[in-house]
Protein 1
Amino acid sequence: MKIFLLLAFAYIFFVSCKKDPDPPVSDSKNDLTIKTGILNQSFVGNGPQWGGYDALQTWTGSPTLTEADWNTLYQRVRFMRPPLVRIMVDQGWNYLVNGKYDPSKSDAVLIKILDFCEVEGITVMFGEWGHQGGTSINTTWLENSAKFLEYLLNTKNYTCIKYFNMVNEPNGDWSSINGNYSLWKSLIEQFHAKLVTKGIASKVKIIGPDIAIWDANLTSWVINTNFDLGDKIGAYDIHTYPSETEVRDGSYKNMVKAYKNAAPPAKEMLMGELGFKYASNSTLGQQNAQRIAGDPYASSDCNMFVYDAFYGIDMADAVIQNMLAGYSGSILWDLDDAMYNIDGGGSTKLKRWGFWNSLGSEKFGNAADENIRPWFYTMSLLCRYFPQGTKIFDVALPDKKGLRAIAGEKNGKYTIAIVNSNFASYEINLKMENGITLSGADLYKYVSGVGAAFTGKKDSNGFAMPEETNLTIDFSTGKSKQISVPGQSFLLFTNME
């Protein structure tokens, strides 16, 4: 009997030793959870500022780009697949010839871009850079502006133009409005009356107030716009050019959220321009000034870090914070260096903010400047894989500096974007409250290096390619995916086409 008991105890001990250990319990402090709560029911989309090219005739002797340059532009924008772009015009560049109204002036550039947007299903935020008339309103210009919009909507039959933005940044002393809210309000009222008279008020939403902000102290423009103009305003927008500090520490989200909260909740709120500007006494501000001084074609209005890989991280962080704040989309400033110069005339001092310079070889003595810059990698993915109509979900983030994430769903397909603008790496547990299994997913990964260097797969055109393909991620109850998020990195999971 004793021998039997000893053998039984030995067997139990042997079996217990061979038993697989319990799986490690994940640390909930590292959980990044995609919630079921919806921040935005019908997302409009992210996309670039496009248009301009107003100095082409002076620079090249031609009013338009070469066929090869147009084809390259179309190929790149087609990969980016932006749901939304912003295009701004001016009477002298687009519909006034020798003092007479002539919309054919736009055939060489604007019409080619709008044709592309129409075919590709890209929504256009369209508008006038400024009004004519100084402290009053030039009624001839106002009629021509409305007539030009009517021409595009009715004669050219563009359905892609969904928003009209009357006057860029009216709160600024650089604006034609010079910060005069009453003048801007009167202009909107008169322009809206023109749209009603022409029978096109139902075809386009006036968007405003389009103010440039640096803190939360100008929400009165949004509040007053709603109170004074009511349904004459169909959507709302602001512009922001934050510093790297407020984006990386996350305070940027709280600032832009104040403007979203000031707008009517039933109407879309868009970021009408987004870029970075640095304090003149900061390290990046001083470096930017030095780079401008060393570039014969750079104006004072440039961000020279569009050439650096870290800019792709900072911009991704800012875009994601806008989405977390409930914005329906962001306009990235901007697409192409060749679009704008500093004086709107013949100056070769460019506003360098783009993904490339289409005239690098033809005019600016640098064929390499036509190549895609690093930040296109992250921005193209945030445009392409958050299509118009996506439901944007709230996210519970772990307390980790510089870590942000956003997720969206459309037609049963999902995208999850994660950015880490800090230099430390993190291990996180990615979860989804709805407990789905994400199948057939691709993982894109971009890690910023020194200067223009970054880690991220690309094809022969310079377009982003997935690091891993056909992934299956089980988010059923209690399950998560453990992810390493390197410092200064961007990850995007998607099973969208």
Protein 2
Amino acid sequence: MQPIKPRTTEDERQLALLTLPLGQPGSGMIRYGAAMYFYRRGMLDADMLEAHRICCNLDFEDPQAVARSRPANKTG
């Protein structure tokens, strides 16, 4: 997955939320909300969205590490 390149002011705001530091109380759910925003805009793939979903209640868990640890989702 390519890094997200913000195109709008809202993209910039959501990117700041997506990259909140690990361990901040509530940060997992906030990051998941931002991930959903980028997914709906076609800027984040389903595998990365799923990693954020897995981590949404785990503020200390790194979604990037979770995504790397999961097998790639192959369809077809």
Protein 3
Amino acid sequence: MANLMHRVKEYLLYTFRKKGAHALHSPFVFEFYNKVIYDNEPAYVYSKILKARKMVLSNRNVIETVDFGSGSGEKDFSTFRARVNALAKKRSLPIKYYKLLYRLSSFLKPNNILEFGTFTGLSTTSLALGSPGSKIVTMEGCASLANVAAGVLGKNDIQGVEIAIGNFNNLLGNILEQNQVFDLVFFDGNHRKLPTLNYFNHCLEKAGTESVFIFDDIHWSPEMNEAWDEICAHPQVTLSLDLFQFGIVFFKKGIQKQHFVLRM
């Protein structure tokens, strides 16, 4: 209940602060808003994302899930049994954010993508469809969900994706060692302050000047708000965008540090 009240308060603040394209004086942010955040893609472009989503929402298989993130409370992890479609209805993003991930990937054309939290594979699918030539490493703590995601990716003929299964803390070091740079990182796996900041700081080692980090649920709780504020204030971050659900940060050189709250 406390987190719900926090999100309501934060959303009201967001509605007062958000801006559209007309208020943007940064040429790059203006272009990014119009080509990425504003959805002007024809409907057919999203057909495979919608197909993947339909597959997940019609999957009535019962699986045992493992949660190493905020859903585990004070424990290291929690387990429970649930139908795939019930989990997807509860935890999936609204469809407009999968479309946004597609547009982000299409605009940025990243060579290497790292994802924290595969879940049912919808975000992975969206990122892969936006940039078909990208190499994607996606981490998932629950083997049963990773299996669901693998099925979704396979049936949609998504290539170039490696699903790493296990606790992020145990997987991340080896993944970072094996890759020189990550052009896009999507953080959607542990909505707590300290792990989020820890993953951010580790991934900074593999961030280039054109890299982009995307954070989900930045206003999910007071501690996620604090994590987002610290990330925006980091000296390597030169541009940060608050879309309420997502926070996006850039590391571009030669620009004045700026922060924008943008309408989705």
Protein 4
Amino acid sequence: MKIVDVTSEIVETIWTCEEKGSCTIDYVKKEHEDGDGYIVDDEILSELERSGLVEIRGPMISLTAEGKAKARPIIRRHRLAERLLTDVLGMTFEDMEEAACEYEHTLAPGLTEAICTLLGHPRDCPHGSPIPEGECCQRAENSVTSFVKSLDAWDIGDVIRISFIRKTDPILIGKLISMGVAPGKEVKIRQKFPAYVIQIEQTQIAIEQDIAAGIYGLKV
């Protein structure tokens, strides 16, 4: 394993540990233990401290601002990959972890943003941990104010291109995508009461009001 990979793995480990509270050096070492012993030793951790990525105080270790800046995109890629693997590809929790680890080191920034948009800018990973926001998430927030509205805010007859889906239930997202309700798709508002009905190409779909309220789009 290259030193850059070890560094990335360590800052990722500390980030996830600090989400639950404080982090110890022993915890970091145990998380990177293999059959031959610890992969991470005091020398490596001291080097990270000299590099300004971590701060060590006795048995405790924490990320500096620079360390958090390095860990943030890694955590974002990993957790978005988990959502992609479970929500779209239907992979089990047991199988997705190794694949997500591969994605976190290989996804280019542009592809990461594209995946985030495809998934509707999810806020949490399948385990319930928060996904750090990206620039695309902020653009989506700004768009809601001036251009994009939820489906229930549009009028009957309007044709809407879906921008993102603000729902966190992976089963629901999977069902919507399987029906063609996904970012980039165009839907026509057919009915709003008593049931909410949208049309995708030649297919009409009835959805609940709260689901319509979580699907955002721009009028075509």
